[in-house]
Amino acid sequence: MGRKKYKNQSDLVNVLEAIIDSSYDGLWICDSEGKVIRINRASEKINGIKAEQVLGKKMEVLVREGLIDRKCKWGHKWGHKWGHKCKWGQA
Q: Would 88 be classed as within a structural domain?
């Protein structure tokens, strides 16, 4: 099966947004500095939050503020491989 070629970047972004939002798993996307740049609808529902509450904040700040428990982290450093499978403040 071949890959679909997208005519422009906008089409690809729309497809990626649809994939992220259709997931039943809560997804958090952070930049290389650990700043939250996107969470999906499942994360909002699972955690009872709105994206606006966390967007632009660094994960370490969210931990310090008690919005997320450090135990939810997996990986080697902030901004890399956050596996958020727990509710705010719980492991």
A: no
